[in-house]
Amino acid sequence: MASPRKSGRQPLADRMYEVLLGQFTDGRWSAGEPVNIGALSRELDVSQTPLREALARLEHTGLVRREALKGYRVAPLLTEFELVKLMDARLVLEPALAYEAARRTTPEFLAEVLESVDDLARAATSPATAAFSAYWTIDERFHLLIAAQADNPFLEKAYRSLGGQVQRFRFFAKLGSARGAPGLAAEEHRAVYDALVAGEADEAAARMREHIENAKQRVLEDRRSVEATEVPSGR
């Protein structure tokens, strides 16, 4: 008896999810921008159904929002309060992940982390407009490698659940991406890597905590700098 044919709809929805997520990483979408599903359907040559399924998944990450009678819209920039609380959550999770990863390093894991560190350093020296997508893709790879190596599925799931909110954080980070932040982050990644190589769990946790704290401060300073230069309408 022939086995039933599997529907290709779900894999297509998965692929559209990755395509749309890649567009966010590439900086194609702006915070608050409406998502025209019809235009996307024509552009990507797919029906609207897998796109709607992909957008529903993105909504769960917090990266897009669905408005009644209006459709989907890219989530707005994080407020300063949200930004602080997001980074505080990362400060709880990521040092713990780095600590556990440092206790279970393998040559293969360290090689992958070193590759991401070197790639990030190269991206940091590229023109800001060209480097933005590559920089954040590599940054995400570095953090996910460490989360996976910690070998704690509950901690890793907690970190991955922040994925869409971290993407919203990156909308903010783009504001200051040309003012030295990529180079500083690359140095901080290397400090975490050095601690991993040494097998120093406490040091790896400390260097990760320092990295997240610094990233938080850089983005807050960039946000306040931009707000200070904005001229109120009617003045």
Automatic annotation (TrEMBL):
<dbReference type="GO" id="GO:0003700">
    <property type="term" value="F:DNA-binding transcription factor activity"/>
</dbReference>
<keyword id="KW-0804">Transcription</keyword>
<dbReference type="InterPro" id="IPR036388">
    <property type="entry name" value="WH-like_DNA-bd_sf"/>
</dbReference>
<dbReference type="InterPro" id="IPR036390">
    <property type="entry name" value="WH_DNA-bd_sf"/>
</dbReference>
<keyword id="KW-0238">DNA-binding</keyword>
<dbReference type="Pfam" id="PF07729">
    <property type="entry name" value="FCD"/>
</dbReference>
<feature type="domain" description="HTH gntR-type">
    <location>
        <begin position="10"/>
        <end position="77"/>
    </location>
</feature>
<dbReference type="Pfam" id="PF00392">
    <property type="entry name" value="GntR"/>
</dbReference>
<protein>
    <submittedName>
        <fullName>GntR family transcriptional regulator</fullName>
    </submittedName>
</protein>
<dbReference type="InterPro" id="IPR000524">
    <property type="entry name" value="Tscrpt_reg_HTH_GntR"/>
</dbReference>
<dbReference type="InterPro" id="IPR008920">
    <property type="entry name" value="TF_FadR/GntR_C"/>
</dbReference>
<dbReference type="InterPro" id="IPR011711">
    <property type="entry name" value="GntR_C"/>
</dbReference>
<keyword id="KW-0805">Transcription regulation</keyword>
<dbReference type="GO" id="GO:0003677">
    <property type="term" value="F:DNA binding"/>
</dbReference>
